[in-house]
Design a protein that fits this description.
By secondary structure, this protein is mainly α. It has helices spanning 22-32, 40-62, 71-97, 109-124, 133-143, 146-152, 164-175, and strands spanning 11-14, 17-20. Strands 1-2 form a two-stranded antiparallel sheet.
């Protein structure tokens, strides 16, 4: 009926709008709930961090769909990029400014994205944060925030990693 502007999900109905496109939805929600910095400079930093985290998350999201013979190589690639490209950036940011959050010492959309990435990488590589003390402390702080702590509890709406049935279903759809 035209609600899905580009004929694909996600679709979020909020404030009388039917919004599509993940980035637009997340930007709107971050702005609405004061998670998008106090000025343009902070927004730019948040955007840079979120885009970097998104690059890492793409690798994580695609990993389950790797052919069996490529899984080990792809996992090694995730580990290499996480530990040599992405996590060092956030470790340095947290260490340099000595604050609890990535931007402006205030909880932001970038913090949400980073804790999501950390948890996703740890599901595949449990000791991935062993060389990152700032990120270890960040993970503990974020995981103890009441709303995040509740979300991480068993039975919450947090989606589990894709199982074999889900992977098979998705692969069948894309092979059509």
């Amino acid at each position: 009926d035209g609600v899905l502007m580009f004929q694909q999900v996600p679709l979020v109905e909020i404030d009388g709008m039917k919004m599509v496109q993940t980035r637009a939805i997340l930007s709107y929600i971050a702005g609405k709930y004061n998670l998008y910095g106090k000025d343009l400079k902070e927004r730019a930093l948040i955007d840079m961090y979120v885009e970097g985290i998104t690059d890492l998350m793409q690798m994580i999201l695609m990993f389950p769909f790797s052919p069996p013979e490529a899984k080990e190589k792809n996992l090694d690639s995730v580990k290499e990029r996480a530990t040599n490209r992405y996590f060092p950036v956030f470790e340095k940011v947290l260490k340099q400014h000595g604050q609890d959050f990535l931007v402006g010492n205030k909880f932001s959309w970038a913090d949400v994205q980073l804790i999501e990435a950390i948890l996703a990488v740890e599901e595949k590589i449990p000791a991935v944060l062993s060389g990152f003390p700032q990120l270890q402390a960040f993970k503990i702080r974020m995981s103890n925030m009441p709303t995040i702590k509740k979300f991480l509890q068993p039975g919450s709406p947090r989606k589990p990693p894709p199982d074999e049935h889900y992977i098979e279903t998705v692969l069948k759809i894309f092979k059509k």
